[in-house]
Amino acid sequence: MSGGRLQQDAPYLAELRRDLLRFASLQLRDDQLAEDVVQEALMAALAGEEDFSGRSAMKTWVFAILRNKIVDAIRQRSRSINVSSLSPEDDSLDQAFEALFEPNAHWQPESRPRAWGDPEEALHQEQFWAVFDACLKHLPDNTARVFMMREFLEFETNEVCVELNITSSNCHVILHRARNGLRRCLEQTWFGPGERAC
Q1: Which structural domains are found in the chain, ordered by start?
Q2: Is-above-0.85 flag for pTM?
C-alpha cells in the first residue's frame, strides 16, 4: 500500500481527527466512547483509503464512516440519556424567534427570509460547509445534537425522542429552533448581500 492522504498528511489527519471527535462528543456525550468511535472510523478509513473513489470530499467520506459508527454506538447503548435541560438552555431562542413575527403570525417585514441565490451551487462548495459548521457551533449543544441526530445521522423523529427521552412535540420545537438559528446565521454570513464569510 503506497498510502493516501490520510497516511501521508499528518496535519490534515490531526485536524480531521479533531473535527470528528468534536462531532462524536456532541452526539454521544461520553468522551471515552467518542474517542473509541473516532478511532474505529479512522482505522476503517485508513484501511479502505485505496478504495476511496473520490466522488466526494475525503472529509465527507470519513464523516460518513463515523456517522455509521455513532449510529451503531447509540443503538447499542442500553442507558437512556436525559436531556431534560433542553428547554431552559433554549429559552433565549424563543424570545428571538417571537420577535421575527407579527401578532398575526406573519413575518416582520425586516425579518422575512431573503432569496438565497443558487443554494445548490453553494452546497457543493467546501467554504459553505465551513460556514455551516461555524453556525452549527453557535447553536446550544443540545439543540445542535437533536438537529444532527435527525438530519445528519438520519434517525427517525421517534428514535431521537426515545434516545433523548423527550416528547415528539419537544423534538419538533427543538428542530424548528435549530433550523431557524441556522437560517439566520447563514443569511448573515453566507447568503446575505456582499461578501461571503469563511
Answers
A1: 5-76 (1.10.1740.10), 86-189 (no CATH)
A2: no
